[in-house]
Write a structure and sequence with these properties.
CATH topology: c-terminal domain of poly(a) binding protein
Radius of gyration: 26 Å
Strand content: under 5%
Order of helices and strands: HHHHH
Family: Belongs to the bacterial ribosomal protein bL20 family.
Oligomer: single chain
Function: Binds directly to 23S ribosomal RNA and is necessary for the in vitro assembly process of the 50S ribosomal subunit. It is not involved in the protein synthesizing functions of that subunit.
Keywords: Chloroplast, Plastid, Ribonucleoprotein, Ribosomal protein, RNA-binding, rRNA-binding
GO molecular function: rRNA binding; structural constituent of ribosome
Low-confidence stretches: none
Mean pLDDT: 91
CATH superfamily: Ribosomal protein L20, C-terminal domain
CATH class: Mainly Alpha
Subcellular location: Plastid, Chloroplast
Length: about 120
Amino acid sequence: MTRVKRGYTARRRRKKIRLFASTFIGAHSRLTRTTTQQRMRALISSHRDRSRKKRDFRRLWITRINAVTREDKLFYSYSLFIHNLYKRQLLLNRKILAQIALSNKNCFDIISNKIIN
């Protein structure tokens, strides 16, 4: 049997992994075995955190809307606000409501007064 020299293929594979892990610190960017392990771990974390980011932003928007709705009225909360919003069929998502609450408080007050009355 003839001898197979597969240095080029193996080097190309390792080089691709090393390019991915070039910003990692220490042995995680230099040694092949640890770079492959770190690469797998990084890809798993990025996949998991893509859905977590959506969750975190939704929580942030809800917190901001809740803070603004509780400022003026004593017994008015986020859940009542959203309930009345759907009852009046005003279709504004939480992201837009949070932006309005932060940037333009008067506009948010107009929306909440329209919902209540």
